[in-house]
Automatic annotation (TrEMBL):
Keywords: Bacterial flagellum biogenesis, Coiled coil. This is FlgN protein. It comes from Clostridium thermobutyricum. Gene3D superfamilies: FlgN-like. Residues 4-56 form a coiled coil. InterPro entries: FlgN-like (IPR007809), FlgN-like_sf (IPR036679).
Length: 134
């Protein structure tokens, strides 16, 4: 059955992507900037691969809802693959959000350090309401 093959390949690609996001997490924790640059390219390629399998799946299903299709086919193996894809997608979302939060925190910290090292030296004045204007 072609749909099983496509879903299996999509699941493999999603698991590779999850592995890359985990690698990105470790590099963020080590503060390895050059390693992060390399992993970004790998993530882009893996995203492209996932998208290609997704397009292939949509061609086969003609855009129909996967849950309805699986219920209609009444195939246990297909249902298990679909459930595994859903779990992997949830894990991907959590890992991506964690990585983004850590990167934002790092950038915020760097910005604060730069402000301490080189504070703004412009003259502060009061506006017509008595509030400090910068």
């Amino acid at each position: 059955m072609r749909i099983k093959e496509v879903l299996n390949e999509e699941l493999k690609s999603l698991n590779r992507l999850l592995g890359l996001l985990d690698k990105q997490f470790k590099l963020i924790m080590k503060k390895d900037i050059f390693g992060l640059e390399e992993v970004v390219d790998e993530i882009k390629l893996c995203n492209k691969e996932v998208a290609e399998w997704e397009v292939e799946r949509r061609k086969i299903t003609n855009g129909n809802n996967m849950r309805e299709l699986i219920e209609k086919l009444d195939d246990v193996e297909l249902d298990n693959i679909y459930r595994e894809i859903k779990k992997t997608l949830h894990s991907l979302k959590l890992q991506k959000e964690t990585n983004e939060m850590l990167i934002r925190q790092g950038l915020s910290f760097n910005h604060q350090i730069l402000n301490i090292i080189n504070p703004k030296r412009d003259i502060k004045t009061y506006n017509s309401y008595g509030a400090l204007r910068r």
